[in-house]
Predict the structure of Chitin binding peritrophin-A-like protein.
Amino acid sequence: MKLKTILAAAALTVVPALGAWAACSGHSEAMSCAQGTVYDSATGTCVKQVTG
């Protein structure tokens, strides 16, 4: 009986943590840049927007 309780508690602890990790992996947050600048994914910063 104790073994089943321990296994159930472990499952209830590990499964949500794995789900949270899987949901967050591979995602990036949207970045806001000041007016006149755009996000440069190569450098990870905002750079002046060049039009022309």
Observations:
- DSSP finds one helix and two strands in the chain.
- The helical segments are 2-24.
